[in-house]
């Protein structure tokens, strides 16, 4: 096994692709839970991004002894909604909701609060990553990107709430901005940069 093989504790292909794109230039090979269908996903019942990241990383690393496992939990915080959807970003419109369902639910919630306003105000994507081995969390890292929420979708790129989020300093949403721009700015990229530096120091 190459020391540059990392398991990402997710079955979300879009998330894995983002992480692989960031790590590939550094010589890392990434796989996710789709390569290990025998593993069951733990219940993400934490009330913070960090708690859920730890739950996922520890469960997968306990089931795969000797493997370095990275898990993240991330979501959108909209100030006008008191930080919602937050840790329930992936199921904001209900259990089993699609990305489109969640975006539409968010727009309805904002419409009820902000009649006549041009956008949904300030917001941020936040990410927390945990690295675990042998069922124990070894390190935790976090990152965020500030921006604003649109009142209608812009572009079809990215995933999740990307078509509604415009990062600070830009006029286009993550649904339009090229992947290399998003990957350089994103909450996940900031957390991942710290995680990679930590791993590199231990696998050198």
Q: Secondary-structure blueprint of this entry?
A:
Blueprint: E1 5-8, H1 13-23, E2 29-32, H2 49-63, E3 69-78, H3 99-113, E4 119-133, E5 136-150, E6 165-167, H4 179-185, H5 187-203
Parallel strand pairs: 1-2, 1-3
Antiparallel strand pairs: 3-4, 4-5, 5-6
Largest sheet: 6 strands, mixed
**What sequence of helices (H) and strands (E) makes up the elements?**
EHEHEHEEEHH
State the strand order across the main sheet: 2-1-3-4-5-6
Which residues sit in consecutive blocks of at least 5 with pLDDT less than 50?
none
Residue share in helices? Answer: 25-40%
- N- to C-terminal distance: 15 Å
Q: What is the SS-derived class?
A: alpha/beta
Number of strands: 6
Number of helices: 5
The gist of it:
The protein is α/β, with parallel strands linked by helices and 204 residues long. It contains five helices and six strands; from the N terminus they run E-H-E-H-E-H-E-E-E-H-H.
Structure write-up:
- Strands 2-1-3-4-5-6 form a 6-stranded mixed β-sheet.
- It contains 5 helices and 6 strands, in the order E-H-E-H-E-H-E-E-E-H-H.
- A hairpin with a 2-residue loop joins strand 4 (119-133) and strand 5 (136-150).
- Helix content is 32%, strand content 25%.
- The longest helix has 17 residues, at 187-203.
- It has 204 residues and is of the alpha/beta class.
């Amino acid at each position: 096994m190459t020391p540059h093989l990392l398991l990402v504790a997710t079955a979300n292909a879009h998330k894995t692709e983002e992480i692989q794109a960031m790590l590939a230039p550094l010589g890392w090979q990434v796989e996710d839970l789709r390569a290990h269908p025998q593993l069951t996903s733990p219940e993400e019942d934490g009330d913070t991004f960090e708690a859920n990241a730890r739950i996922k990383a520890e469960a997968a690393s306990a089931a795969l002894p000797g493997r370095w496992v990275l898990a993240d939990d991330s979501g959108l915080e909209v100030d006008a909604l008191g930080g919602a959807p937050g840790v329930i970003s992936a199921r904001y419109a209900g259990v089993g909701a699609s990305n489109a369902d969640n975006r539409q639910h968010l727009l309805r919630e904002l419409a009820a609060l902000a009649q006549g306003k041009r956008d949904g105000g300030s917001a941020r994507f936040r990410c927390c990553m945990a690295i675990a081995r042998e069922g124990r969390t070894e390190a935790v890292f976090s990152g965020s990107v500030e921006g604003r929420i649109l009142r209608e979708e812009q572009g079809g790129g990215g995933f999740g709430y990307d078509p509604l989020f415009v990062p600070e300093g830009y006029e286009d949403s993550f649904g339009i901005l090229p992947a290399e721009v998003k990957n350089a700015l994103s909450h996940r990229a900031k957390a991942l940069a710290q995680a990679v530096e930590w791993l590199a120091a231990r696998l050198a």
